[in-house]
Design goal:
This protein is of the alpha+beta class and 473 residues long. 30% of the residues lie in helices and 21% in strands. β8 and β9 form a beta hairpin. The radius of gyration is 22 Å and the shape is globular.
């Protein structure tokens, strides 16, 4: 803390934490060194950023905020698309979990304890070094485990192992009254239920106990490049992909993603088995004749994960800091995109002013083990989702309105083609344009139960962002 505390709240923080653990707006380079907005298109200046090192220091920080009527949000890696880890608007207290790096492996149960501030790249390495273990998670190494694993945590291995949050067995959580609780199926089970999909609305998670799996021994990574210039000419390839991934008998070893961007279309993914097994799927032959393909076989699991991390699209989407906008939709086997809408969508991508050359549309296959879990078993409720679409537009200096309109138009074409269907959205890709309708889109039928738990453990809505769960009326 560079300046003498000037408010009662700052004085409270000064008594709760070491001096070097507090950053205030009066500090030099506060925005650059402490705030570090992920999305620079959204204004959000916290009243303070604290970096506690213990659960007790988190508790004291939260109690200072409660005493002075200030909202609180935790930040793990800081990759919130709408800066919700900064409060989503001015005036919040940010609890930065950067110092929570604990890692332990119980080699009898193969359960790992992971600090909430650990980044995904470090999670992979530490699991690997502790007996060749692994768990499901996403593909961006700089994403923080604390936020990722409590909002969903979807990745290439999720079709086999479930979402990252499905691995959580226990968590340590600081609640709005400052209480530090250990939550599992026996102790405070309602808190664990809410943490597994909506933690930012309920407390600050400091550490997790998770189940792990043995690393796969061999994986095949494949890429199909579709370089035909006109997006409209790529529509049939996408139709073939959607038909293939909608097959209920599709192997759970198969992960796949379609990425459309300014220069073309790419279909890539991972098969958790040998190249021979992958070839036997006949995926390449079934896909379309207009795709060129390549595949590589990796017997080094950490190398395979590193390959995910190094993908150019991941580096663009996952590592970008600047002005951007993103939207998402969730599709089930009953809400596949009709062929006519696919044609309209790909023509739209040819003709519409995007306002930027840096844009991407990503279709991500999910299902498998994720869908084995009942919709009401965790706060994450999109258990019937077959695939998501994520759309992104990045600005240079500023993001023009035409870029936002372009992404909105994509969603409009799709939703118009599926009348009387309510397509959900992934809470990991928060969309401020949804307003409080976002809560229904993110949590669906689980929202009423979340609101009831919120009323019980955070009735004054201490843990708040523009689209967080509100207490039941």
């Amino acid at each position: 803390m560079g300046q003498t505390p000037s408010t009662p709240f700052e004085t409270c923080l000064g008594a709760a934490l070491p001096k070097g653990a507090i950053s205030l707006p009066s500090d030099p380079f506060y925005d650059l060194n402490a705030v570090k907005r992920f999305n620079t298109a959204i204004e959000s200046t916290p009243v303070a950023v604290v970096r506690p090192s213990t659960a007790q220091e988190v508790s004291k920080s939260v109690l200072c905020a409660v005493e002075h009527g200030i909202k609180v949000q935790a930040r793990s890696g800081g990759h919130s698309y709408a800066n919700y880890c900064l409060g989503g608007k001015n005036g919040a207290l940010v609890v930065d979990m950067v110092n929570f790096q604990k890692f332990e492996m119980d080699r009898n149960t193969w359960q790992a304890t992971i600090g909430a501030g650990t980044l995904l790249g470090d999670v992979s390495e530490r699991l690997h070094e502790s007996g060749g273990r692994a768990m499901a998670h996403g593909t961006c190494p700089s994403v923080g485990f604390g936020g990722h694993a409590t909002i969903g945590g979807l990745g290439p291995s999720s079709r086999q192992w479930g979402a990252a949050l499905d691995h959580i067995l226990e968590a340590e959580v600081v609640l709005a009254n400052g209480t530090i609780v250990r939550t599992n199926e026996r102790q405070h089970p309602e808190v664990l239920w809410a943490v597994k999909g909506a933690a930012a609305s309920f407390g600050v998670v400091t550490e997790f106990v998770v189940r792990t799996q043995p690393e796969p021994q061999e994986v095949t990574q494949y890429t199909f490049n579709v370089n035909l210039g006109s997006k409209a000419k790529m529509a049939n390839t996408f139709k073939a992909w959607q038909k293939l991934i909608a097959d209920p008998k599709l192997s759970r070893k198969f992960a796949s993603q379609v990425t459309i961007f300014e220069l073309g279309m790419m279909i890539r993914g991972t098969f958790f088995g040998s190249e021979k097994e992958f070839k036997e799927l006949g995926f390449e032959e079934k896909l379309a004749v207009n795709a060129t393909s390549k595949s590589i076989v990796l017997d080094d699991w950490l190398g395979a994960v590193g390959n995910w991390f190094e993908t150019e699209i991941v580096k663009l989407v996952g590592g970008a800091t600047g002005p951007f906008y993103s939207k998402s939709l969730a599709f089930t086997p009953q809400t596949l995109i009709p062929d006519a809408a696919i044609d309209e969508l790909f023509q739209y991508m040819d003709k519409t002013d995007k306002g930027t050359l840096i844009w991407t549309v990503i279709f991500d296959l999910e299902a498998g083990a994720i869908n084995d879990v009942a919709p009401g078993a965790t706060a994450y409720g999109h258990r019937d989702t077959l695939f998501y679409v994520q759309t992104y537009a990045f600005g240079i200096g500023a993001l023009p309105q035409s870029s936002r309109n372009f992404l909105t138009g994509i969603n409009d074409i799709i939703t118009k083609s599926l009348p009387n269907q309510r397509l959900g959205a992934y809470a990991g890709y928060v969309d401020p344009a949804l307003g409080e309708n976002g809560q229904q889109a993110y949590w669906g039928t689980n929202l009423p139960r979340l609101q009831t738990i919120k009323k019980a453990i955070d009735p004054n809505d201490v843990f708040h962002n523009p689209q967080s769960v509100r207490p039941a009326a």
